[in-house]
Amino acid sequence: MGSRDGSGGHSTEDQVYAADIQSIREAQARIAPYVHRTPVLSSTSIDAIAGKQLFFKCECFQKAGAFKIRGASNSIFALDDEQASKGVVTHSSGNHAAAVALAAKLRGIPAHIVIPRNAPACKVENVKRYGGQIIWSDVSIESRESVCKKVQEETGAVLIHPFNNKYTIRRPGFDAQPLRMCGAEPKGADDSAQSKAAGKIITLPSTNTIADGLRAFLGDLTWPVVRDLVDDIIVVDDNAIVDAMKMCYEILKVAVEPSGAIGLAAALSDEFKQSSAWHESSKIGIIVSGGNVDLGVLWESFHKR
Amino acid sequence: MGSRDGSGGHSTEDQVYAADIQSIREAQARIAPYVHRTPVLSSTSIDAIAGKQLFFKCECFQKAGAFKIRGASNSIFALDDEQASKGVVTHSSGNHAAAVALAAKLRGIPAHIVIPRNAPACKVENVKRYGGQIIWSDVSIESRESVCKKVQEETGAVLIHPFNNKYTIRRPGFDAQPLRMCGAEPKGADDSAQSKAAGKIITLPSTNTIADGLRAFLGDLTWPVVRDLVDDIIVVDDNAIVDAMKMCYEILKVAVEPSGAIGLAAALSDEFKQSSAWHESSKIGIIVSGGNVDLGVLWESFHKR
């Protein structure tokens, strides 16, 4: 299944996707020395609330506190020595930023990280801890991209794109078992749900959600995967995210960030319970994608309820 | 090594302990169906702070949120059917209470739980969730014990003692590897450290620590184990406990209660760094014993600093 074409894409039947089973296996081997094998946790108390068996893949315990090190280390260790020698650059408000800084440190090359001024303090601290060189930008995607481009021109660094990047795509659905794949999005940044409904990429003029890790957009590499291989996108509001986050702390004993709790919020939502995925599944796997949160911000979000 | 005597104790050389390798293996087999195999986590960021490799055995992910289900299920599933039929009783302000309630529920017998009025709300909630019948007592150990005795007399329930119980003792030190065993205690409840210094059981008139799970005392079954088999007791103050707890949340991404963070606090303490255990070890295992904490209380403890 799939063969490389000139642009590095891979084809399945008629549609070309940015990742296939071969590239995923290559990625697995490439990143194995640099990532943790994170545990899967479960809780009979949460199962009783959900009415299904839930399995939490705890990527919040991953290096740099989120799944992003997988894509970042895959991208950076796939570079040849000449490309790598000039370093890497990215723009990100959070977990991808720290992951690129750490992967670059592991490879021993410079990392230039463009960070918008509204990034959570703990995520900026992570970038510093891993030795990333920080360049500030405004919040808009245009400002982030233009500052990033300037750094690229000045340094020759390779861009490790935060989301539209074939080395960071984690394409699901190759498993031999019948598997329903659902995405989860906050109401204030539901571009994937809107795009699926419209049948084309919809880019939002702005986003408004507590889930700072979910404010990114679809790109031309990720859109075909979401369009064709994700069965459904469950949209939840910030209240549901905070409730799920609280449940993660109090019952699962796992410190998650808002974006990391959205999978549980989706699994507990009425929308999901009315879906065919719910009725056809007895076991539900949830990726807890990240755990980088300012404890002060966390408390305020609980307290405001 | 060791053989049963009439009182159920086990002897090693001259000293009789309440647990030996055989009783521990029996316990392991008895409780296996009822407990999680919890993961061991590590963090290079915390290792860098500590100056050693630390391995965190995360018993906060255990059933009922703490290691206590091990002793409770061992005690309750060791009862014969006639003993079990009348139910069990215990007094505890927290994790042992919830663990006894859950283990009794798993065995299908009643659990009477005597809880002092100063118990953390989330731990009381856990007892309720597992169907334990709550009887309130005053805070003093005398009140707890007298209420407990009354319940025993009225119901015929078997006492599952919260700490002085041969089925809940987790005796370390049988491993073939050279292993240094250190305990950790809060300054406001350091009866073990004082007892080791005095060579006899010292019982404190009162305790004062944020670590609500560590306010219990030594008993005649636990004292010989602590006296002979624990190399050293590291005493840390509540500030160090809160610092370690914050590190668990922010870096390890694990939601721990104060008592669960004390092992890390001890590993980072000056006292430990001056000990021979520190100088003779490259790898340090830490038991993260529990994760049941009221988020409001947690925040206040961070905020007060």
From TrEMBL, chains A, B:
Alphabetical list of Pfam families matching this protein: PALP (PF00291)
InterPro entries attached to this UniProt entry: TrpB-like_PALP, TrpB-like_PALP_sf
Cofactor(s) the protein requires to work: pyridoxal 5'-phosphate
GO biological process, one term: L-serine metabolic process
Keywords: Lyase, Pyridoxal phosphate
GO molecular function: ATP binding; D-serine ammonia-lyase activity; L-serine ammonia-lyase activity; magnesium ion binding; pyridoxal phosphate binding; serine racemase activity; threonine racemase activity
Family stated for the protein in its record: Belongs to the serine/threonine dehydratase family.
Name the UniProt record assigns to this protein: Tryptophan synthase beta chain-like PALP domain-containing protein
